[in-house]
Specification:
Elements lengths: L1 H27 L2 E2 L1 H11 L6 E6 L6 E2 L3 H12 L4 E5 L8 H5 L6 E2 L9 H8 L3 E3 L7 E5 L2 H5 L14 H6 L4 E6 L10 H7 L13 E6 L5 E6 L17 H13 L4 E5 L2 E7 H13 L8 H6 L4
Parallel strand pairs: 1-3, 2-4, 2-8, 5-9
Antiparallel strand pairs: 4-7, 6-7, 8-12, 9-10, 11-12
Helix pairs in contact: 2-3, 3-5
């Protein structure tokens, strides 16, 4: 009862916080329409028929008339019915992979569990025509032409980002693009697909020793156990998304731009970028061959200065 009361109180406080934030943005930020978002995505280089994996900051776009649902509609307009949209709709009640693995009696149920990734993933998950992968921590959702293909086998993948996962399949699609709306190159889960592809050959040992098997339930009510190996917790302190690693985020942005892979522009009020998925993966692999990864130290960056 106490846990349930705490969850309810937390939900109420979050709802009040969001209302207050929306009211403040409506009063202080420039208003952005659906049509403006579509035009901005087109100028950035998002085209009809593209498959787009989206990482985003909703508030960076400005005050969007109609909120997160309007952003979802604009993204669908941008790629059209032959295109595909993919968003992270992770549900990680333990706060981390390890914390979730260590929860007692946790069962991920795709029919009832939402996402704690923010308002845009929430709105995407609540919209029509969405397919969602079955995974205890890293469930993703997709809409469009390749939605079923990308999400159908996640629970059978040997690792979060491994063979059969949405990320591994996404890399192989034509016109696949990783899109950052109003974010740096820090909070981009796509990096990890190379770690799972290279396994022990990856320059940094990223996983702990123990593999857990967590139960999940799919849309049909079928139960399966999904393997999950937590990351080494010490790595998070030096990874590209850690608050202290602005140097690494800046370096990667400049490196991918230098390589001719990063395309930048503005959508609404948000500085935005995209990188072709295959080029992203191949260049990450090239950098790993030079011992440069999203965990590299300042000394390693200094040893490979950008031209």
């Amino acid at each position: 009862m106490l846990k349930q009361a705490k969850r309810l109180a937390k939900a109420v406080l979050e709802k009040l916080r969001r209302r207050s934030s929306a009211r403040e943005m409506r009063q202080t930020q420039r208003h952005v329409s659906r049509a403006e978002l579509v035009a901005g995505l087109a100028r950035l280089g998002i085209e009809k028929g593209d498959a787009v994996f989206i990482h985003s900051s909703l508030k960076s776009l400005g005050y969007v008339e109609g909120g997160a649902a309007t952003v979802v509609q604009a993204l669908q307009d941008a790629v059209g019915p032959e295109g595909t949209l993919v968003l992270p709709t992770y549900y990680m009640p333990g706060g981390s992979i390890r914390g979730t693995c260590e929860m007692k009696d946790y069962v991920f149920d795709v029919r009832k569990h939402g996402t704690n990734m923010g308002r845009l993933p929430e709105a995407f998950l609540a919209s029509t025509g969405i397919a969602r992968s079955v995974h205890p921590t890293h469930s993703v959702s997709a809409w469009g032409r390749h939605a079923s293909y990308l999400t159908e086998a996640h629970h059978r993948a040997p690792s979060v980002f491994g063979e059969g996962s949405p990320w591994q399949r996404f890399v192989g699609l034509d016109n696949a693009k990783v899109l950052g709306l109003g974010i740096s190159m820090g909070p981009v889960t796509f990096y990890h697909v190379l770690e799972d592809a290279m396994g022990d050959a990856f320059p940094v040992p990223v996983w702990g020793d123990e593999t857990f098997r967590l139960p999940c339930i799919d849309q049909a009510g079928q139960r399966s156990e999904v393997p999950l190996r937590p990351f080494d917790p010490e790595l998070a302190k030096r990874r590209i998304d850690h608050g202290s690693r602005e140097d690494l985020r800046t370096y990667f942005m400049a490196e991918f731009k230098r390589a001719g892979l990063l395309h930048s522009g503005q959508v609404g009020e948000a500085p935005s970028w995209w990188i072709p998925a295959r080029g992203f993966f191949d260049h990450l692999q090239h950098l790993a061959g030079e011992n440069l990864t999203i965990y590299s130290s300042p000394e390693q960056l200094a040893a490979r200065p950008l031209a």
